[in-house]
Amino acid sequence: MSSVSSPLKLKLQILCGDAIAMGPGKADLLDAIAAEGSISGAGRRLGMSYRRAWQLVDLMNRCWTAPLVETSPGSARGGGARLTEEGSDVLSTYRALQAALEARGTGAEMAALGAKLRTRPLRSQADRSELSDED
What we know:
mainly alpha; Arc Repressor Mutant, subunit A; two-stranded antiparallel sheet; 4 strands
């Protein structure tokens, strides 16, 4: 028996103005920073460039009332990054909310939406017009 994943996906994003202050990818980045002890190591773990990882950390640090990640100058010893107390708190609270949302997303409402969802979109009017022009 094969496992078929649901076509419905809930994604928790927390906004700060128009910016995403926290979402699944940023939470994964914080987890990776905690595990690796550096932004570059976290980026490698997640398959993203150091520059992109740094941009995401910078945005998160600017969106919350206190920085989520603290960095120290790189060197052979002692350099790197770590989650601040605020960062650990935001991450654990986000993960708890994410788990609650996922648990709730298995209910009757999701099943009702899934039952109404097509397996593929219908062809657009533009696609239909191109086909009739070629006939």
